[in-house]
Amino acid sequence: MAKVSVIIPVYNTERYVAECLDSLLAQTFQDFEVFSIDDGSSDGSLAIVQRYADADPRFHVLAQQNRGAGAARNLGLEKASGTYLLFLDSDDFLEASYLDEMIRRADEASADVVLCQAYSFDDNTHEEKLLEDALCGIDYSAVASGAELADRLFQCCKGWPWDKIFRRSFVMAHNLTFQELRTTNDARFVFMALCEAERIASVERPLIYHRVGNGASLENTRSRSWENSFSAIEGIREGLEREGIFVTFKKSFDNWVANYLRWHFFSLPAETQEAMMGRLSTFLRENLPLDDSDYYADQFDFLFVQKAVLLHSELLVVAHDDDHRLYWLQKELDSLRIGIEERDRYIDELHRSVDELERSLENMRNSHSYKIGRTITAPVRALRSNSPKA
What we know:
The protein is of the alpha/beta class.
């Protein structure tokens, strides 16, 4: 039995999957098994992962009709035998010490879940950048339960799995699975694992590179499945309620919901925003506070919730008027952004005024007339400085 099972959904990533698998071969820790689950790829991905399986008995290939990454991960989960589980995306790649450092931390902390920091890797520019908000507000030297982090659990990390490893016995004991959704299929698994974990540990060093700017990734085609965001949210809520722990995590969860839906809404094209607006307004009105700004850690989230609900009626009134198919929420938030930009311009103008005054003062000090004046008044200033103090 391998120490860690690596589960990788693969769908049309022939440009990237070899780099992902090579980063596993380069690991300083080699006691692993890999399950590459081809999700009905139409390019050369399946042939590539099969080549690795033919060359190394630790690599295995599974195949399914196109059912999404959630179903693929669940299939890999059924086959895995390792002490720990790692769920990778097939276009990401690892530092050579990823498994070594994560497993060492898991063993020493007897952890159910271990998290690490991560880099983004821009597919176009190849720029590497620390994902600063992917893991924050964490004491890296400590081990904590999900309940002990309840006030900020949904804010301290993201609902993706690849910067985390999970103890398989813990996952099996809590019957954790991925939602079979086209997108956002990992959030329920990750957040339920964190909420139910008795021991969560972390590694401060960034150990994985998450590829961004890949136009073919599902991340960039979410407009086709915007409903999945609500399915993920409802799946997490139902899981927390079923386990009797929803009240413990409610405020952190609600703040995550507001922030996530705000990001999701404004990342979509206008026509998809229009399709989403009705359900968004109803969902927010039924689930989140509308008149308690102190409840929200981010006031832009509070404003988003308010405007999405209060302005939806105005949106409906003009919904059939082609001259007024305007997104009132977007207009309100845009006006706020304009206000912020105007404030920043005013501050810049003040800085420029200060700079100009300082330059004028310096020019005056360096002028011929100023130097002559200083010479003439020197005796008077000397007498003044030497006169007795009252």
